[in-house]
Specification:
This protein has helices at residues 12-17, 52-55, 67-75, 104-121, 173-189, 214-232, 260-268, 306-309; strands at 40-42, 45-47, 57-58, 79-80, 82-84, 128-130, 197-199, 237-245, 274-279. It is α/β, with parallel strands linked by helices. The strands form three sheets. It has a five-stranded parallel sheet. A two-stranded antiparallel ribbon has the order 1-2. The chain has a two-stranded parallel ribbon with strand order 3-4. The N and C termini lie far apart (41 Å).
Length: 310
């Protein structure tokens, strides 16, 4: 039996995710050294002292894992950073998604338990969430949207195409805001601490479709939730746009005119607690047939490396 050992110094990105499902022809041993001093370097740019509390985080809701897995992460000195959810309308994502229940009240009760565990495991650790989906208003009339696209609206990057749609009309803003307010209220009433930062949707630039100007419409949606939280839970801060920015060096058009990042800053900046922007340094997570049946290799755009830019 052959084992391959990996040191943390060379695998910060891999280790940081920690949701590792290793599939190989032979057993693999992943050796992580929690007390090794690290250095991040890209060209002439370097960070000589890597603060584990800041850089070594995992992508999950902090109280969602079983005790055994949580113990392993604590031994590795890994803290939760940001998770995805809640999914109020329907379950989505991988099998690790937490809190889902078809009954809204039971879903809230599950989240209370999750965040109680979070407080026990990671007392005082600040973390964030990005929303999954929301229950929309019921109506006898079919939902209609204006599919006339504003000519100033920048198109979604071709490699970020996904097949699902998640957008909301103004008539649903009050309802979606109430769901977030009720969710945080339930967590606090249950004696737990909710996320410090909340982005209304995760990477809406990939899936917000069917409204006249998606970046602007999403900004209005996020602002409605921000104002709702400010009234009821001012300590819970809105962040966003939680966008997937795939061109860190070349694609600045999203920051001008009516791009996703600029629209959020201009519409929500005065009531937001943080900006949430996902920089993809090389390739795209959605750039494959795995994420879209409509994916075509000839649409794939060249993506500059953030590391090369330094």
């Amino acid at each position: 039996m052959k084992n391959r050992q990996y040191t943390l110094a060379g695998l910060l990105t891999l280790a940081a995710s920690l949701n590792l499902y290793l599939k190989a022809a032979e057993p693999i041993t992943l050796e992580i050294q929690p007390f090794v001093e690290l250095q991040l370097k890209a060209g002439s740019h370097s960070i000589n002292s890597v603060d584990r509390e800041r850089y070594f985080r995992t992508y999950h809701i902090p109280g969602m894992f079983a005790d055994e897995q949580a113990k392993i992460m604590q031994e590795l000195r890994v803290s939760p950073g940001r998770g995805t959810g809640p999914y109020f309308a329907h379950n989505a994502g991988d099998t690790e998604r937490a809190g889902w229940d078809p009954a809204f009240k039971r879903q809230l009760q599950k989240y209370v338990k999750i965040y109680r565990r979070a407080d026990e495991r990671y007392p005082g650790v600040i973390h964030a969430q990005a929303g999954g989906n929301y229950i929309k208003s019921k109506s006898n009339a079919p939902e209609t949207v204006n599919n006339t696209v504003d000519p100033d609206t920048p198109s979604v990057d071709a490699t970020m195409l996904v097949d699902y749609k998640s957008s909301y009309l103004p008539k649903d803003y009050a309802k979606t805001t109430a769901q977030v307010v009720d969710w945080i209220s339930a967590i606090k009433a249950g004696g737990a601490n909710p996320p410090k930062y909340f982005s209304p949707l995760n990477e809406p630039d990939a899936h917000w479709k069917g409204t006249p100007n998606p970046p602007k419409d999403h900004g209005q949606f996020a602002r409605a939730i921000a104002l709702g939280l400010k009234d009821r839970h001012p300590e819970a801060l809105i962040s966003g746009p939680s966008s997937a920015w795939g061109h860190p060096r070349a694609d600045w058009k999203r920051w001008i005119e009516s791009g996703w990042e600029r629209e959020f800053i201009e519409q929500v900046g005065d009531v937001a607690g943080a900006y949430d922007i996902h920089v993809y340094s090389k390739e795209y997570w959605a750039g494959s047939a795995e994420h879209s049946v409509n994916f075509a290799a000839d649409k794939k755009q060249p993506t500059p490396s953030m590391y090369d830019a330094f």
